[in-house]
Amino acid sequence: MKFYDAPPAPSPRRVRMFLAEKGVAIATVNLDLTQGEQLTAEFKAKNPRCTVPVLELDDGTCLTESLAICHYLESLYPQPNLFGEDAKEQALVLMWNDIVMFNGFAGAGEALRNFAKLFRERSVTGPANFPQIPELAERGRLRTEHFFSELDARLADSEFVAIDRFTVADITAYICVEFASWIKVSITDAQPHLRRWHAAVSSRPSAAA
Amino acid sequence: MKFYDAPPAPSPRRVRMFLAEKGVAIATVNLDLTQGEQLTAEFKAKNPRCTVPVLELDDGTCLTESLAICHYLESLYPQPNLFGEDAKEQALVLMWNDIVMFNGFAGAGEALRNFAKLFRERSVTGPANFPQIPELAERGRLRTEHFFSELDARLADSEFVAIDRFTVADITAYICVEFASWIKVSITDAQPHLRRWHAAVSSRPSAAA
Fold first, then answer.
1. Mind listing the pLDDT tens digit for each residue in A103-142?
2. What is the pLDDT of residue A88?
3. What's the confidence (pLDDT) of residue B146?
4. In a domain? residue B81
5. Are residues A50 and A111 in the same domain?
6. In chain A, which residue's Cα lies nearest the Cα of B153?
7. Domain boundary at B43, B76, B109, which?
8. Are residues A176 and A93 in the same domain?
9. Per the structure, how many domains does chain B have?
10. Which residue does chain B place closest to A123, by CA atoms?
11. CATH of the domain at B60
12. Which end of chain A is more exposed for a tag (fewer CB within 10 A), N or C?
C-alpha cells in the first residue's frame, strides 16, 4: 500500500490526520504540486483526475477521494472507530462530512483557486485548465464565512461535529477551518462554540499531521 | 420515518431511485421549491440548510444529504447491496460517488443556478442569497462536458460506474446525466460507452422513480 501525499494541500492532510488518529504509518510518496507533479503521465495513470490524495493498493487499485480512502483505512484499522458504530451514527457522520465538503470546502476552494496567482489558469482541480473568475473568489469567501456561522450553530448543540465523539467529520471540518485561513477567513468572537471545538481538536496529537 | 421530497429536483430523485431499487416505499411529503417551501421556519427546523432530501427518523432526527440518507436506508434494507460488500468495493463506491458529485453534479449545478431566471438571486442552495455569476454558468457547462468524457472513459473499462455491478454510484451518475439535460448537455456520438450504460440504466424500473 502506498500513499500519494502533497503537503501542504488540505485534502491529503485529511488522510494524514486520519492515519495519525489510528496510530498507523504507511509508505508515502510526496508530490510537489507547484511543479505540476500531479499532471505527469505516470501520475495520470494512477488518477486521471490529477488530484491527491491517492492510495495505491497492493493489487494496483488506486483509490482517490479522501472520504473513500479513509473508509478503506477504517476497514483495515477499525480502532478507534471514526465512521460511527450503528446505522444512525454512520449516516450522521457521512451527512456532516458532506455538509462540510459542499459548503465549507467548496467555498474556500472557490475563494483560493479564483484569487491566488498560482492558480491563474487553474481555477478547478484536474487535467483541464479553467481561467479564474474574480467574482467567484468573493462569493467563495462569503460562503466560507456563512459556513463558519453554520458550524458554530451546530457546535452550540453538540461537542463534536457529527455525533457525541470525535469522527472523520471532525477531521474534515478541522482541515476546512485550517484551509480557510489561507483565504484569511478566521473564527470570530461571535463564534465561541466553533472556537472551543477548534481549540480542542488543535490539542489532539493528530492535528500536527 | 418520513421522506421530504421535491420533484423534479435531482438530489431527492437519487433517494427515490435508491428506494425503488430496494422495492421499498416510505411516507413522503412533497415540497414545492418554486414556492419557497424549503425556506419556511418549519422546514428550517428540520434542515437549517434548506435543502432536500430530508429523512426524518421516528426519534425526530433529521438526516440530510442524499448519500447519508441512502447509507441509512442500506442498513435498514440491505438487499440488494448498493454500497459494496467488502472494504475495497465500499471504497470504490464512495470514491466514484464523490467523483460524480465534485465533477459532474457540481458543474451542472453551477451551470443551471447561474443561468436560469428562477435562480437569479439564488445561485447557491441554502438560506442565504447569492447573485448569479454568468461566467460561472459557462464554466459549469464546460466542466459538465468534461465530466461526460471522463465518465465515458471509465465506462470503456467497466460495465458499471464503481464496481462490476449496479451500485449507488450508478444512481448518482445516472441522475447527474439526467440533470445535465436541463443545461442542454447530452451524450455525444463520441461517448459510446456512456450511451450504452445510460441506455442500460434507463431500462431499469427504478429509472422511472
1. 999 999 999 998 888 888 888 988 889 989 999 999 999 9
2. 98
3. 96
4. no
5. no
6. A48
7. B76
8. yes
9. 2
10. B139
11. 3.40.30.10
12. N
Beta-sheet pairing, A54-56 with A27-30: unpaired
Q: Quick check: A98 and B68 CB within 8 A?
A: yes
Q: Are residues B204 and B119 in the same domain?
A: yes
CA neighbor of B154 nearest in space, from B186, B191, B122: B191
CA distance B23 to B80: 9
Pairing of strands B28-30, B2-5: parallel
Asked if B189 contacts B196 with a C-beta cutoff of 8 angstroms, the reply is no
> What pLDDT is attached to residue A63?
98
> Which of B70, B88, B64, B98 lies closest to A14, judged by CA?
B98
- Nearest-Cα distance to chain A for B125, in Å, is 9
Same domain, A40 and A97: no
CB nearest B99 (choices: A65, A86, A135): A65
Within 8 A of A123 by CB-CB distance, chain B residues are 139
The verdict on A116 and A179 lying in the same domain is yes
Mean pLDDT for chain B overall? 96
A209 domain-assigned: no
CB-based contact, B75 to chain A, within 8 Å: yes
Let me know whether B41 and B98 are in one domain. Answer: no
CA distance A203 to chain B (A): 29
- Assess whether the previous peptide bond of B80 is cis (omega < 30° from 0): yes
Asked whether residue A134 is assigned to any structural domain, the reply reads yes
Residue contact B49–A103, C-beta within 8 A: yes
Expressed as residue numbers, the domain containing A101 is 87-204
Last residue of a domain, one of B51, B76, B101: B76
Q: What CA–CA distance (Å, rounded) separates B66 from A186?
A: 30
B118-128 residue pLDDT tens: 888 888 888 88
Q: Taking residues B57-70, report their average pLDDT.
A: 98
CATH code, domain carrying B100: 1.20.1050.10
Please, which residues have CB within 8 angstroms of residue A117's CB and are 6 or more apart in sequence? Answer: none
Q: Are A92 and A36 in contact (CB under 8 A)?
A: no
- B109 inside domain: yes
Show residues of chain A in contact with B61, CB under 8 Å.
88, 92
Parts of chain A with a pLDDT under 70: none
Q: Are residues B68 and B94 in the same domain?
A: no
Q: Do A124 and B143 touch (CB under 8 A)?
A: yes
Q: Are B182 and B159 contained in the same domain?
A: yes
B167 lies within 8 A of chain A by CB: no
Size of chain B in residues: 209
Using a CB-CB cut-off of 8 Å, the residues of chain B touching A88 are: 57, 61, 72
| B61: nearest CB among A69, A76, A88 | A88
Q: Are A53 and A69 in contact (CB under 8 A)?
A: yes
Q: Residue B13: its pLDDT value, please? A: 98
The answer to whether residue B14 scores a pLDDT higher than 90 is yes
